[in-house]
Fold these 4 entries.
Entry 1:
Amino acid sequence: YPLHGTDHAVTTMDYNFWYAERGATDDGVTAAEAAAERAQVLATYQDMYRSTYDGNRAPLLLGNHFNEWDHNAYTEALGDFVRDTCGRPHTECIPFRDLVAWLDVQTPRTLARLQRAG
């Protein structure tokens, strides 16, 4: 998915965000820079949510290693997103095993629809 404010597609895993934003290094990152990166990742999650919620309703997969890269920016962005999003109407936040079980019972037609963008 495009990193918010860019055309750069990123697989939604904390390390991938860290690599895209910082080249996977914490050298010299300030708290203010980390806060801006946290906001960009949170905005990316929100973009993804809006796109699928208003589009094909495909599940979102968000991954995190729970490392403290960039002053813990990526874990905090994920936490902010979960707190703000889970519990919204027609929104389920579930573990990956439950998603896999759900996908296993879908028809090929439904899976094809979910694979189409938007």
Entry 2:
Amino acid sequence: MTQMIDPFGRAISYLRVSVTDRCDLRCVYCMAEDMTFLPKAEILSLEELERLCGAFVDLGVRKLRLTGGEPLVRRNIMSLIRCRGAGLDELTLTTNGTQLARYAGELADAGVKRINVSCDTLDPAKFQAITRWGKLDQVMEGIRAAKDAGLRVKINAVALKGTNDDEFDRMIEWCGRAGHD
């Protein structure tokens, strides 16, 4: 098997793959409120993504992270996740959590062991302001569903001066109490 090697002589075994540019939130640091997305014809099909991921696995990739946009808004995304769940040391997902309540069990059944959830605040009003229209309770429900399905949850937060920088201690304490990474 041919192994990919980076310019520093290290074997490349980890790959992040963005499966869509679309998202169901419009976080102020990430997207404009009125986004212009790529034409769907310019986005790789799920079959093309499967072939691409398979080629990288053949070249030594052992860990794969699916990202976006929001990967769980991609139509039929579970077909790609089910295909890729086998043959890897680790298949992970980065998500905003809005669709987790719906997909957590399927993700676990497909071989996903852990996920990263973007959650910048524990304050519902701030959450809605940061995401422009998101509902914190929907994300919390998704996180609970993920934990119930046996998924390890890592919380990612973007530090926003004057917005959520007064909550870091509370966020760390919550993550510790809830068993999140």
Entry 3:
Amino acid sequence: MLELKGIHKYYNPGTVNEMCLFQNFNLTIDNGEFVSVVGSNGSGKTSMLNIICGSIPVEGGQILINGSDITKQKEFKRNRRIGRVYQNPAMGTCPSMTILENMSLADNKGKVFGLSRGTNKSRIEYYREQLSQLGLEDKMDVKVGALSGGQRQAMALLMSTMTPIEFLILDEHTAALDPKTAELIMELTDKIVKEKNLTTIMVTHNLRYAIEYGNRLVMMHQGNAILDKKGEEKAKMSVDDILALFNEISIECGN
């Protein structure tokens, strides 16, 4: 279980540009949930992910995993339990290294073997099996920079879930892809989440994906969760329902 309790987050504190994004923000995500998060730009979606992963600190409140307080835990330590895939495929892979080197480093959390750049030959068959999902099983000596954006994003997804993790964080991970490739990445995402029973938080601007994938839907607005639907309630929702709420917010904000 992941809990955000009484979170306070300020940007530019103590300056004329000080902004309070989260004020006493609370959110609980149960084990096994796949939560789709939507909201306009600046609503707090990515900041929430950064707080969970430890990329940015908070001014108040607690972050708990299964009752254990990780609020002050460093990001690299949280990475042992949390896998993250970013919008930009370049952030999840190293283009100057081969597919094998990338897989080895991800599999061993960055450990280097001898003087090599992290190759782990004892795991090649496992890597080949994983890469067969992408049609890359015979291209392990190819540098990742030579792959398409979709292939790199698929690799980043595989690499983030190779070691045992408890949570998967998807930060608009299909936004930079063409529609066909995005569909393939979402299918792979759903497969991995179900097979590994990962508690997942997916931020997306694609409202159809938010509706079709996962068992919970959260809409953020000005640092608050203004919509939270689970299970049957979520299943009954449509893209039009979300759009109507977006339009209502836009009118209230004078847009």
Entry 4:
Amino acid sequence: MPAGQLDVRISHRFGQVNTGSYELWGLDQANTHFGLEYGITNRVMAGIGRGTFEKTYDGFLKFSLLRQSTGRRNMPVSLSYFTSIALNSTKLQLPGPVNFWMRASYVQQLLIARKFGERFSFELNPTFIHMNMVPTVIDPNDIYAIGAGARFKLSHRVSINAEYYYVIPPSRSSTPTYNPLAVGFDIETGGHVFQLHLTNSLATIEKGFVGETTGNWRHGDIHIGFNISRVFTLD
């Protein structure tokens, strides 16, 4: 994001499609996230947000380290570093006090991206997540994953997108989790971007959809979701 630009983003996930007609195939349920992202410089971006999932407050920094280029300086890929912190603010029934840092989770990512021509882009995301607090003593505090994302532009304003994360299976876990997969469309309408997608993950931030996806595509645990983004230029 260029320096001086503010991105207002609203993300929404409905319930699972396989809940049937009584829940209107998930449309009776709602999970939202509201975020603000700001370009501090042309290479540094920061953001904050609040989501329904675990009533999470989150913040992140993203640093652009390398940019794909040709000519005098040939750089085959773009490379960025992403780091975030998320705080679970739900009321917890625990025998002892729960302090601020016990509620924190951290994400570290490298974003390795390449644009192949005018239409196709591809990205790899090695990911590490650490959660200070987990549901039980057998659940892992550390999660390792590798993500892949692709975009194909159907026109100047419409693209089809897909994202998948392979999560290295933990040795022990109290709750089965699955690799997150999302497919959808982006539609640009002037200063707005509208994204419509299907996903097996209810969460909208990295800590949640990488490490806490409990939906299985093969069982119909699919959420209809959409994101709306609006960019404002402040400088």
